[in-house]
Write a structure and sequence with these properties.
There is one protein chain. By secondary structure, this protein is α+β, with helices and mostly antiparallel strands. It has 2 domains: about 5-65, Arc Repressor Mutant, subunit A (Orthogonal Bundle), CATH 1.10.10; about 75-240, no CATH class. The protein has helices at about 5-15, 35-45, 75-85, 95-100, 140-150, 160-175, 175-190, 190-205, 210-215, and strands at about 20-25, 50-55, 60, 65, 70, 90-95, 110-115, 125-130. The strands form 3 sheets. A 3-stranded antiparallel beta sheet has the order 1-3-2, with helices on both faces. Helix 8 (about 190-205) packs antiparallel against helix 9. The radius of gyration is 22 Å and the shape is elongated. The protein starts with a helix and ends in a 27-residue tail after the last helix. The mean pLDDT is about 85. It holds the Pfam family DUF6088. This is AbiEi antitoxin C-terminal domain-containing protein. InterPro entries: DUF6088.
Length: about 240
């Protein structure tokens, strides 16, 4: 197939895609022998400003807002990274999650991805934090709430009191089975400050069994300075939270 035909095919398919969708060579042709022609076409379109290079072999058609070029969605980025990292289900952590949960209005310039090890050569808009291997996809929402507890003092444009109030509401909406799973996940991979905070919140629901299980994992002599008021967390002293 002539290069001009490849270019026509590439442009036609790009025009049918929503802005922000990530595409690679295999999205245009199936024969590896034609990848070089597709790569050349995408490179020319990138230089012309019609598409933007996101990573090696990955491009997207930009969408312009009054704030500038809108990058690909987190979901699109994670789908691509998941294919390259081999994780069961790559999941976002950090500010992008806190924004989606309504905890902050800040929009991150970088998406943080949980990974079993730090990874290099990722797209510049992506970084990784080390977390245990994901066991099942249904754990992702629970793990993201545990990330909230882990970062309760570091979430921008809010306060620990506001975050804790929101988490308390979320915990009350969980089924008993989901709460049990949350406690199990917290016991396995959440730092002590997050386990103490979750235990105090569960105790107030009340979920005495879950709270007791978490208390057993804590050092009774450790104090956790989280900046949470007694008004929001009345039992904070019993959990050595300040």
């Amino acid at each position: 197939m002539a290069k001009v035909s490849i270019m026509q095919r590439v442009k036609a398919q790009l025009n049918q895609l929503p802005p922000g969708a990530l595409v690679g060579y295999a999205d245009f042709v199936q024969e590896p022998g034609q990848f070089a022609a597709v790569a050349a076409a995408l490179s020319r379109l990138s230089k012309a400003g019609e598409i933007i290079r996101f990573a090696k072999g990955q491009y997207y058609r930009p969408h312009l807002s009054r704030f500038g070029t809108v990058p690909p969605s987190d979901q699109a980025v994670l789908a691509v990274v998941g294919a390259t990292t081999g994780q069961l289900v790559p999941y976002a952590t950090g500010i992008s999650v806190y924004n989606r949960l309504g905890l902050t209005t800040q929009v991150p310039a970088v998406v943080t991805l949980a990974s079993t090890r730090r990874r290099r050569n990722l797209p510049r808009r992506l970084r990784t934090v080390v977390r245990p291997a994901l066991e099942q996809a249904s754990d992702v929402p629970l793990l993201q709430w545990l990330e909230v507890l882990r970062d309760v003092r570091r979430i921008p444009d809010t306060s620990p009191d506001r975050v804790v109030t929101r988490v308390a509401k979320e915990l009350r909406l969980l089924t008993p089975a989901a709460r049990r799973r949350l406690v199990a996940l917290a016991s396995q991979q959440t730092p002590p400050r997050g386990r103490a905070l979750l235990g105090a919140l569960l105790e107030n629901i009340p979920n005495k069994k879950g709270a007791a299980a978490l208390r057993q994992t804590l050092n009774p002599l450790t104090t956790y300075r989280l900046g949470i008021s007694a008004k929001v967390l009345p039992n904070r002293a019993a959990w050595h939270i300040q």
